[in-house]
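hey so i finally got around to running the thing on that chain from the lab meeting. sorry it took forever, my laptop kept dying and i had to restart like 3 times. anyway pasting the input first so we r on the same page abt which one it is
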Amino acid sequence: MSWSRGDDAPHPRVLVVCTANICRSPVAEQMLRDRMAHYQVPASVASAGFLLSGSEPDRTMVKLAASHGVHVVDHLSQVATPELLDATDLVVTMERRHARDLIVQAPQATARIHTLLGLLSASAEVGRPARPTQLAPWLERVAAVRPPSVLVGDLGGDQIADPHGRAKRHYKKAFEQLRDAVDELAVVLRGTD
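ok and heres what got predicted. didnt touch it at all, straight out
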């Protein structure tokens, strides 16, 4: 999957990133796609990871999501590339290490790369963008209030832990965090108009 600058893909283009793109990010991708459609905001939503392309999603997470009306179908993992990051308006990650690794890959995209929960926290400070088409200047303001140290270390309340291969209660917790955060992100992205 790729987006090219200047093409006809709807904006904003949002990329959701987790480690393998098989558990958290595909579910968050579908949730956000559904919410943006509900708000009638044209958007493109995709997901990616750092490991292999072509892997199927985690069955436990897909089943849990389906039981809550979120249907992840025909998903195969893809790797986040610098080219994909360059053509994306907003990148939200599940963990700080994901954001750090992406910033190393594409330092020119730093203002567009945030942990999902960290972005929502910062948005409370700077307010919402006026319109989805004004995402870039809004993200610059958000990045300006993000202390440089916020992505250092892997502890903190701005992360959604990976449930892959763990007990079902970890899947449930991750799903609930994703549902709440994606609902809030969709509200932010639809703007204040």
